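Give me structure tokens for this 76-residue protein.
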Amino acid sequence: MTDHTSDMFADYGRAHKTPTVEYKIYFSLIFVAALPFALGGVVLSLLGLGGKRRSGGVLKRAWHEANAITPMIFMR
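Here you go.
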């Protein structure tokens, strides 16, 4: 039988930290840059040319893209 109590204090990842000012600035810039592409994606989706139809509007798509790209900048 495995002893699961031996590594009770093991580090299972980084603790959740509040975003820094630098992170918020990068996020904002990427969000603004993603808005035209998100608008284009919504228009293509409505016309039936965008492939799989995703739910959400322009802001949701741009927010998702910025939320996916910004952490990549801060990876070590």
